[in-house]
Amino acid sequence: MSNNEGESRFSLPVRVYYEDTDIGGTVYHANFLKFMERARTEWLPYSLGFELDALRLHAGLLFVVRQAEIAYLRPALLNDLLTVTVDLDAGGKASMDFVQEIRRAADATLCCRGWIKIVCIDAKTLRPKRVPERLSAELADVR
Questions:
Q1: Which residues contact 33 (CB under 8 A, 6 or more apart)?
Q2: Which CATH superfamily is domain 10-142 in?
Q3: How confident is the model at residue 8 (pLDDT cuts 50, 70, 90)?
Q4: Where are the domains of the chain?
Q5: Catalytic option among 22, 80, 107, 141
Q6: Is the dihedral of CA 24, 30, 34, 37 positive or negative?
Q7: What pTM does this model have?
Q8: Is 97 a catalytic residue?
Q9: Contact between residue 120 and residue 50 where contact means Cβ atoms under 8 Å apart
């Protein structure tokens, strides 16, 4: 995992296991979304210091995917080491827009790119909820 000081990009290494592949030995398309989710989940506490379970318990806040667009460009294969990046593109009062890439680590081949909109919601009502001020300030520093 990495996030250099002054950089907004976070990266997470992910190894492709047998369970991630389809019958042809390539990463099953839905698993790219799982890899992106895993990287965003790691990004929040490691880059910003906010744990998802603490936000749910103490602030009554959940993050849900509102929209996802993904472009599959090259296959990833069994045993490939991938680098999954997270870039916060924009943030609103109750949302965050991310650009994410998955590259083969050995040769930096871009396997896929995703545009993900995350919305903050109230854990009880499941209605949109404003991002807490402390987190909002941290997000502003990242962009």
A1: 68, 70, 114
A2: Hotdog Thioesterase (3.10.129.10)
A3: low
A4: 10-142
A5: 22
A6: positive
A7: 0.88
A8: no
A9: no
Residues in the chain: 143
- Count Cβ neighbours within 10 Å for each residue of 25-56 and write b for 16 or more, e otherwise: ebbeeebbbebbeebbebbbeebbebeeeebe
Compute the Cα dihedral for 65, 97, 7, 29 and give only its sign: positive
Amino acid identity for residue 113 in this structure? R
* Rg of the chain on CA atoms, in Å: 16
Tell me the backbone φ, ψ of residue 51, rounded to 5 degrees. -90, 135
Which residue in this structure is represented by tokens 């069994």? Answer: 78
pLDDT tens for residues 75-91? 999 999 999 999 998 88
| 85 contacts 8 by C-beta, under 8 angstroms | no
Q: Mind giving me the DSSP string for 36-85?
A: HHHHHHHHIIIII---HHHHHHHH-EEEEEEEEEEEE-S--BTT-EEEEE
